């Protein structure tokens, strides 16, 4: 058979050897249905940047691949992540008033498309600052001022003058106060001034609202400060002592210097939400010569209403969890 095959090939004037294309035709059923590079993809070769004549590309034009790996504590992305437990967990409870519910539906809003109200507030913030903002704020409703406070805390932190203008002569914006540093700090004198003003107001007999038959339109307790957040701002011990006891939601995030947490259960006994995240000084020991972390020495049992605790990037030991849930019917939710 071989001799006959070679003789037939010689008569046809073709070489005796069979080409690979002929073999592929006869054995097409053994070939894969897809190209080999799709079945067994080879790793993409590393592309080297080609040389371009002229000066090097400016650093601001270069794309940094690792820009999302480490987020600094000065950008809007970090502030949004730091305040998200307070916004989504603590600020607006389930049994909130309709005004607070409207504030949360505007910002923070999980929808990717911002509402027209938020776009208008962004325009006001970009066009007005300082004294100009103080002239516009009286025409903004209270629940929208609360939205503006939350938005600026993340995207455009307010200065002390702008924050005072947004508060409209009080210490908070609709029971909320968010102070973002490092160029702004909470002042203890404002809390003492507010308490003194309220005391003088109640002692004034000439005020018609203090009459025994006057109709009380608003509850004074509902207008007290309840939600306080201090982010990347220094906090002194004297200022912390002036915190009103009506605070139920407190966030002390990335405080640069150490504070005395042992006094906090006495100052704010009604806490439901507490966030102590990103405080590097919590890794320090309670006293020199001891091996007890600060969180283990904190009297968690005094907060009988505590429900949520934020301890991101904090030393959470088994003893801390044990003391946190000691004597409670339901365990406290810990955000780590």
Note the main attributes of this structure.
36% helix, 336 residues, alpha/beta
Give a written overview of the molecule.
The chain has 336 residues and is an alpha/beta fold. The protein has helices at 2-11, 20-26, 36-39, 76-91, 98-106, 116-127, 131-136, 142-155, 160-167, 188-202, 237-241, 264-267, 294-297, 318-324; strands at residues 176-180, 227-231, 249-253, 273-275, 308-310, 333-335. The chain has a six-stranded parallel sheet with strand order 1-2-3-4-5-6. Helix 6 packs across helix 8. The longest helix is centred in the N-terminal third of the chain and has 16 residues, at 76-91. The chain is elongated.
Question: What's this model, at a glance?
Answer:
36% of the residues lie in helices and 7% in strands.
Biggest beta sheet attributes: 6 strands, parallel
* Percent range of helical residues: 25-40%
Secondary-structure content class:
alpha/beta
What is the overall shape? elongated
Number of beta strands: 6
Query: Can you give the mean pLDDT?
Result: 75
Give the low-confidence spans: 45-50, 63-70, 91-98, 195-221
What is the radius of gyration computed over CA atoms, rounded to a whole number of angstroms? 33 Å
Distance between the termini: 80 Å
Strand proportion: 5-15%
SSE string, helices as H and strands as E: HHHHHHHHHEHEHEHEHEHE
Helical segment count: 14
Spatial order of the strands forming the largest sheet: 1-2-3-4-5-6
């Amino acid at each position: 058979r071989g001799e006959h095959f070679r003789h037939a090939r010689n008569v046809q004037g073709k070489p005796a050897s069979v080409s690979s294309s002929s073999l592929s035709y006869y054995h097409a059923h053994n070939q894969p249905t897809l190209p080999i590079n799709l079945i067994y993809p080879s790793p993409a070769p590393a592309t080297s940047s080609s040389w371009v004549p002229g000066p090097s590309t400016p650093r601001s034009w270069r794309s940094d691949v690792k820009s999302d790996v480490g987020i600094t504590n000065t950008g809007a992305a970090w502030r949004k992540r730091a305040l998200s437990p307070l916004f989504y967990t603590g600020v607006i409870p389930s049994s909130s008033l309709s005004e607070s519910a409207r504030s949360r539906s505007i910002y923070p809003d999980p929808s990717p498309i911002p509402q027209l109200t938020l776009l208008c507030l962004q325009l006001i913030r970009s066009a007005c600052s300082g004294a100009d903002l103080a002239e516009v704020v009286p025409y903004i409703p209270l629940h929208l001022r609360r939205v503006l406070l939350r938005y600026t805390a993340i995207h455009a932190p307010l200065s002390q003058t702008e924050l005072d203008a947004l508060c409209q002569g009080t210490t908070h914006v609709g029971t909320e106060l968010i102070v973002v540093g490092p160029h702004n700090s909470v002042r203890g004198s404002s809390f003492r001034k507010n308490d003194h003003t309220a005391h003088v107001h109640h002692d004034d007999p000439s005020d018609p609202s203090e009459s025994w038959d006057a109709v009380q339109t608003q509850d004074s307790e509902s207008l007290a400060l309840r939600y306080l957040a201090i982010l990347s701002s220094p906090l002194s011990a004297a200022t912390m002592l002036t915190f009103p006891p009506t605070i139920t939601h407190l966030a002390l995030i990335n405080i640069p210097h150490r504070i005395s947490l042992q006094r906090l259960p006495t100052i704010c006994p009604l806490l439901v939400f507490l966030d102590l995240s990103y405080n590097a000084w919590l890794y320090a020991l309670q006293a020199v010569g001891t091996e007890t972390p600060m969180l283990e020495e904190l009297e968690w049992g005094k907060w009988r209403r505590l429900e949520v605790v934020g301890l991101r990037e904090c030393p959470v030991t088994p003893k801390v969890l044990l003391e946190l849930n000691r004597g409670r019917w339901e365990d406290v939710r810990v955000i780590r």
